[in-house]
Structure formats: C-alpha cells, structure tokens
Amino acid sequence: MNSYIVFAIVFWIASWFVNEWLVRQRFASPLMNRAAHLAVPLLFGITLLVIWECVVKGFAIPQILLPAPSAIWDRLINSIPTLAADFRQTFLKAVLTGFVMGSGLGFVVAILIDRSPFLQKGLLPIGNFVSALPIVGVAPIMVMWFGFDWQSKVAVVVIMTFFPMLVNTVQGLAAASHMERDLMRTYAASWWQTLTKLRLPAAAPFIFNALKINSTLALIGAIVAEFFGTPIVGMGFRISTEVGRANIDMVWAEIAVAALAGSAFYGVVALFERAVTFWHPSVRGGQA
Question: What values do phi and psi take at 16, rounded to 5?
Fold first, then answer.
C-alpha cells in the first residue's frame, strides 16, 4: 500500500483516539476545559487536511482536479496582495454594506408590520415572494440597474438578507406571552414601552438568529453576484476567471479566504449575541 495512504490511516486513527480522550476529560481548571473544547475541532480540521494531502499525493491526483493543501497554501501566501484586494472589494464593501442595509430594513419593516395588521397581510406575502427569487436571475438585473461596481452586489445582498430578518423579527415580537403583555397593560405601559422593555428583549434571540443566517447569506450573495459583472477585482470575479485559466489552486485560495471571512463574521455575531442576550437561558446554560 502507498506510504501516503498508510500514514493517512495511522494519523486518522491516532487523532480519533486523542479526540475521544479529550471529549471525555473534565479538568479542574475552566481554562483547561475551554482549551480542550477548542482542541477537538482544531485537531479534527488538521486531520482532514492531512488526509487530503496524503490522498492527493498517494493517488497522484492532477492539480487541475484537486490541488493539495500545501499547493493551496503556497498560492495563498504568494498572492496576498491580490487576495487582499478581492477581500476589500467583496467583503468590506459589498457584504458589510448589504448586510447592514438588508438586516436593518428587514427589522424596520417587521416593526411596521407588527404595528399594522394591514401591512402584515400585505407585506409578508411580498417578502415571501422576494425571498423565493433565484439569485442567478436577480444578480444580472441588479448589475443592469446599479452598474458593475460593488453597488449592484450590495443590492443583491440586501434582497437576500431582508426576508430572514423580517420573518425572524416578526416571530420574535410574538414570542412574549399574553400574561406578560397583560402585566404591561396593568402598569399602563404604552405600545412603545411594551416594545422596548418586553417584546424586543424577548425577540432578541430571534433577531440574532437572523443576523447569523444573514452573515453567511450575504457573503454567498455577493460572490455569486460578481459572476455576472464586476470590475477586475473581487472574490467572485477571481474564482470565475481563474477557473477559466485552469488555475485551480488560486480558486481554492479564494475559497479558503471566503470561508475564513464568513466563519469569522459568524463568530463575531455569535459573540455579540452572547454579550447582549446574557440573560437568556440558552446562554446561561452554555456558560454553566
């Protein structure tokens, strides 16, 4: 058997036993417990990369089909200026701007819908219709309307992030029980006071759930939108161009940057959620 494949099998078995041991440990120090919890997914990810490397080299898979992680890493290190420019164009301009605008618009419309039964019956079906629009059909239209630069990508991201925030916020505002609302009425609280002191705090987990969903949808929407027209910079532009040139290692380097950016964005939103909703049972249970 090929030495690369033997090494991959041995490494997989060893890491499996180490992870099994780690997940069963209960250390006296909270810091050690946290380190062990972080070590498990880290070791699992390293194991997948090692197996990937060994399989590519052991079976002599052509780079155009599947480059090895070492080749992707070399391309990533040697293309930092290009990757940084693509990151700024796609993530810092299109993703963040569209994420804020789409999530903010969805939140405001949800408040209006909650206030008006007429809007609830009229806007929710329209929102549902907008969410069902295929991105490959919407993106070319947005490029025609707003041009080839990042503004058209923002429009696509707004469309993709609007409906998740709308639906989750509407459901969250309805999460407060009738007994709690009756108590607020007993205190002669106005609609605005009930909203800010009871219903929005109760809706906070739903709102943050929408933000976490939108953190990934925004990146996907911006990258796909760049396939249909963009300046000569951007993650989607680079992926589509380098595929045509058969530079698959560069394509994987862009995918790696996008994955890291999306994961980091999701993590920031999750940390902010823990800081804001520290009182929620799910957060308190996780801290215990």
Answer: -60, -45
Q: What angle do CA 3, 21, 25 make, to 5 degrees?
A: 155
3-state secondary structure of 83: helix
Q: What is the pTM of this model?
A: 0.81
* Measured distance CA(56)–CA(157) in Å, rounded: 36
Q: Rounded CA gap, 262 and 278, in Å?
A: 24
Is the distance from CB of 164 to CB of 221 less than 8 angstroms?
A: no
Name the token pair of 206.
């739903």
- Residue 130 corresponds to which amino acid? V
Q: pLDDT value at position 24?
A: 84
Mean pLDDT, residues 161-189 = 81
DSSP designation for 197:
I
pLDDT of residue 61: 87
**Architecture in CATH of 75-287:** Orthogonal Bundle (1.10)
**All structural domains of the chain with their residue ranges:** 3-61, 75-287
Tell how far CA 17 is from the center of its chain: 31
Could you tell me if 106 and 162 are in contact, meaning their C-beta atoms sit under 8 angstroms apart? yes
Separate counts of helices (H) and strands (E) for the chain: 14, 0
Neighbours of 112 (CB within 10 A): 12
Best CA proximity match to 96, nearest among 161, 146, 168, 140: 161
- Using alpha carbons only, what angle is made at residue 192 by residues 187 and 195, rounded to the nearest 5 degrees? 85
Q: Residues 229-287: pLDDT tens digits?
A: 777 888 988 998 888 888 899 999 999 999 999 999 999 998 888 888 777 666 655 45
* Residues 175, 145 contacting (CB under 8 angstroms): no
Note the Cα 94 to chain centre separation in Å: 14
User: H-type helices in 147-280, by residue range?
Assistant: 150-173, 178-186, 191-194, 200-225, 235-244, 248-276
